Amino acid sequence: MPARTTRSPLLSITLDRHGAASLQEQLYDRIREAILNGRLKPGSRLPASRVLASELGVSRNTILGGFERLHSEGYIEGHMGAATQVSMVLPEDLLSARNRAAVHSHDTIPAGKISNLSERMGGFASHRADNSGRAFRPSLPDLREFPFQLWSRTIAKFWRNPPPDLLTSGDYAGYPPLRRSIAGYLGAVRGLNCTPEQIIITSGAQQALDLIARTVVDPGNDVWVENPGYDGLSSTLVAAGATLHHIPVDEQGLSVKYGCKVAPDAVLAAVTPSHQYPLGITMSLARRLELLDWATRQRAWILEDDYDSEFRYGGKPLSALQGLDKTAQVIYVGTFSKVLFPALRLGYMVVPDALIEPVLRLRRAIDDYPALALQPALHSFIDGGQFAAHIRRLRGLYARRQSVLVEALQNSSHGLLSAQPSEAGMHLIASLAPELGLSDVEASIRAARVGLVAQPLSGFYGAGGVKTEGLVLGYAGLNEREIEQNVKLLLTAMLAKN
Amino acid sequence: MPARTTRSPLLSITLDRHGAASLQEQLYDRIREAILNGRLKPGSRLPASRVLASELGVSRNTILGGFERLHSEGYIEGHMGAATQVSMVLPEDLLSARNRAAVHSHDTIPAGKISNLSERMGGFASHRADNSGRAFRPSLPDLREFPFQLWSRTIAKFWRNPPPDLLTSGDYAGYPPLRRSIAGYLGAVRGLNCTPEQIIITSGAQQALDLIARTVVDPGNDVWVENPGYDGLSSTLVAAGATLHHIPVDEQGLSVKYGCKVAPDAVLAAVTPSHQYPLGITMSLARRLELLDWATRQRAWILEDDYDSEFRYGGKPLSALQGLDKTAQVIYVGTFSKVLFPALRLGYMVVPDALIEPVLRLRRAIDDYPALALQPALHSFIDGGQFAAHIRRLRGLYARRQSVLVEALQNSSHGLLSAQPSEAGMHLIASLAPELGLSDVEASIRAARVGLVAQPLSGFYGAGGVKTEGLVLGYAGLNEREIEQNVKLLLTAMLAKN
């Protein structure tokens, strides 16, 4: 029996013979990733197709097919065969936020062993666009609206004279007064049913995902993720050894039926019921009950990622899935990155009672307890009412900005780009008219050439299957004038002669 | 073939049939842990020995032997058999920093699956004493000496007007100016050979340990740890699936010969060469070269935990092991918890070039990037010279405090407790004279009764093998008068009629 995976040391890519996607598709995905994250640099030569075919133990047609697609999308250039190289014209701006260090270390061979986990993560270099363009990065708040004077006074007040006990040790679950504030807020605003003891403060939502994954998933366990979905969640689950199943999202949310068909024994289903990322769908009540019912029957966990629920502009707000959970199977994750700012790195999770101890004993081992740093200031901010006032203010601003984006697309694109309004969130999906003759990846590359970040929707899908195309356009961080100007710029880029 | 591990659901403990320690010893260790961390509460009944023997599939003599030892050390009381219970007189103060949440959740049954990793961590509940006593907690800095006015001004200055780009994204390795400061400091003061690109800021040293463990250790890989050593390191390695080998420390440091005998194929050796924790030994140059030579031959990694190197009072300071490393196999870990304060939760590691990318891609998946929070203030503190001035000042203070502790033990204990001076660190090991007639665990319990933290040295050893007894006495956080007073209190407790 051949090994399940096959690896090319020349390209540092690994294919999975039993994967859901075809080998050709996997080859395409891996090479595209390596180009986007900068591991394969513009102008660097790819191995000859027959060399690669022999190295990977696949047919040469598989290689040529993958190359053909990369070629047609502009990632590689040159004739098929020995002279194929990574495109020189690939705009630098589309390359991800790789840092000098990673580039610096690229050619070094480790002196000792690297874990299989680390090798697995090789496919997950970040696709995150770099910092240079603010328009139209999704999930980016408008920092010009943040009350920094008040914030710095609150921080300084605490740090002038902090209680010594707080400096020498900490609660593994985080600063208790902040946990009380969060429990109060979630109960009142999001309909959660929780005590402060169930709140665990984390270093952004990302650490919450890691703690959950390692507490409930064993290597090889099946896990459901949404398709399309958030790459940052998938990488965390893969780091815990999960076998991911990309479950399609329909107009009601994640398809529980599909999940039951392909992976009935999943131990965890990760969902974004309030505002599906990135499609923006709100999971219907019927689907929520169906999901909870599945979890109860299967004794599985549900991870509810409520990443931007603060920004709901219309419609009847559905309370969190966690509030419907009668069997203590929902683990709720929230973040302050969207309302305040991402570099705050403060998130939280709400775990069922029975998970508190397992999560905290892992936490002790992996980072002890969260930094005191800005927790007391955030607590004051919430309890003093400034947090709620800030959300209300942003909600009004962002709602108007969304309308401005929808109208600007309508008014200036002559139907080439169009977006439906959404009842929530910080981004919209713009559809590309067929007349444009551009794939979403091509459109994204063109946008990057003029300094715009317009992530291709197809990039949010797992390998294989049908992918809807579109551009993910964040609007929250831009004022109305900036939105109008940048929509014009985007259209110019789409229509430019290449 | 029987399963490798056997588990008692009644007591929630797991024994390893192939473990280095005997089953009786493991039983003793697990129950003692459960009592110390509060999982087994004072007065709670233990299962009858014959029930437990049948549940675990071991002989009743094994159970009785373990109970006997727990009984003789005061952990349990009552007659052997059905009436055995956890001692009521076990002082609350010795119980670890468990929180309400953990207690609250103790009796709940999880609705879904818990990972094997999480189950494994069950044996690693923290032994950390709670906050109530400052004397003689090890590694506790004197916060009365910290310049909070200056600190809060530095923090507020940054947060009044932070550069927006810093708030919306971050370098996966941490705030670049801080990394430059640290690289400069380590090169000048600790003889490290590193660039800023090799510095990765972490949430305390603990997160560095987790990142290293997951990047270079696969489940089942052998790893050397020092015996005695730091429990917090062992727990992190176990969380990564490592098979730990407790390697004895002799007067020159970790015994490389012993390691080669019991686990020649180890992928990682974790050491504290500057100031062995907790024994205080400085690893000799000959032993350092022997360890590096082994790593080169074996292509293994060395984790150098330089947890309190800032406090060296005499002798010729040996530069870090990392500075001697010619083959890029040493991973250096440092922390600001000791010089500044633990709740800062800022540590760092210095990794060989070839590990930068593997560590950072894991970091992205498990917590994205470190919080900006206090990194800019710390950077200003180091570059402005306040950090070095603070260390110089503390070094003078702590050196005097160590002398005061040695003398106070000499003058007031009549030889019952004695400690040798050490050239470095924030704690000493006090030996117990045989005339006292107390084990170090008993002595520690007596100390806790009067509100003192005096951790038993035997608790720092892996199961099995010879354990040296003694009390670990931290002195850095106490002024001279407090040291003298608390030494008197400690002696009174030792001599009290029980």
Radius of gyration of chain A, in Å, reads 23 Å
Share of residues in strands of chain A? 5-15%
Structure summary, number of beta strands of chain A: 16
Estimated helix fraction of chain A: 25-40%
Largest interface, Cβ cutoff 8 Å = A-B, 113 and 112 residues
Poorly predicted regions of chain A are 91-107
* Average pLDDT taken over every residue of chain A: 87
Largest sheet of chain A: 8 strands, mixed
The structural class of chain A is alpha/beta
Report the end-to-end length of chain A measured between terminal Cα atoms. Answer: 48 Å
Strand line-up across the major sheet of chain A: 5-12-11-10-9-6-7-8
How many helices of chain A? The count is 17
Question: How would you portray this structure in words?
Answer:
The structure is a homodimer. The N and C termini of chain A lie far apart (about 50 Å). In chain A, the strands form four sheets. In chain A, strands 5-12-11-10-9-6-7-8 form an eight-stranded mixed beta sheet, sandwiched between helices. A four-stranded antiparallel beta sheet of chain A has the order 13-14-16-15, covered by helices on one side. In chain A, α1 packs across α3 and α15 runs parallel beside α17 (about 480-495). Chain A contains 17 helices and 16 strands. Chain A has about 500 residues and is of the alpha/beta class. Mean pLDDT of chain A is about 85; it is low at about 90-105. Chain A has helices spanning about 25-35, 50-55, 60-70, 100-105, 115-120, 150-160, 165-170, 175-190, 205-215, 230-240, 255-260, 285-300, 355-365, 375-385, 385-415, 440-450, 480-495; strands at about 5-10, 15, 75, 85, 200, 220-225, 245-250, 255, 270, 300-305, 330-335, 345-350, 415-420, 425-430, 455, 470-475. Chains A and B meet through α4, α5, α6, α7 and α9 of A and α4, α5, α6, α7 and α9 of B.
